[in-house]
Amino acid sequence: MTVAQRSDVAVAAQLFRGFGDPTRLAILTELLAGERRVVDLVEALGCSQSNVSGHLACLKECGLVADRPEGRAVRYRLATSAVVDLLRQAEQLLADVGQQVALCDNYRKGTTDDR
Question: Domain locations in the chain?
Fold first, then answer.
């Protein structure tokens, strides 16, 4: 593997780390249904406003979420159709292998990478 390929893999790992956080993934999943305000996400997820806002800032900085002002509020949405497609594909993959993932000892305990 070349240095450039390792760099690409590292960036991809960072992307998927973003999807790996339960709160961020829940936010992204909520946004699959359409635009939401912070207050809507707080109510749906049962998280604090500061927690949701922090995760939204992270997702926006990474280009996964976009926003638009609406009066005094801000509405958030998935930034691109590629994000929508990836989340939909993940839903399909989980339908196929979710039971195996749930039972996987390595995923439940966490893994270490000795490289």
Answer: 3-79
- Domain 3-79: assigned CATH number: 1.10.10.10
DSSP codes joined into one string, 68-95: EEETTEEEEEES-HHHHHHHHHHHHHHH
The series of mean pLDDT values per 10 residues for the chain, 115 residues long, is 80 89 96 98 98 97 96 97 96 93 79 45
Length of the chain: 115
Please spell the DSSP secondary structure of 95-115, one letter per residue.
HHHHHHHHH-HHHHH------
Q: Is the dihedral of CA 20, 25, 26, 29 positive or negative?
A: negative
